[in-house]
Amino acid sequence: MEDFIIIAVLLLVIGAAVIYIIRAKKRGVKCIGCPAAGNCAGKCSEQAGCGCGCHCEE
Fold this sequence. Notes:
Elements: H1 2-27
């Protein structure tokens, strides 16, 4: 019974993460882990753009 609960919790966490990634990609987020990913000005360099080092398109 304990194994079933552990497996269910792991599946729930992994499922939630997958759903979060799918929704973020549908919104057009370039770099999901970056807190400023939605605010990128287009050119991602240290002077212009979000400056986070994510791989935005120039």
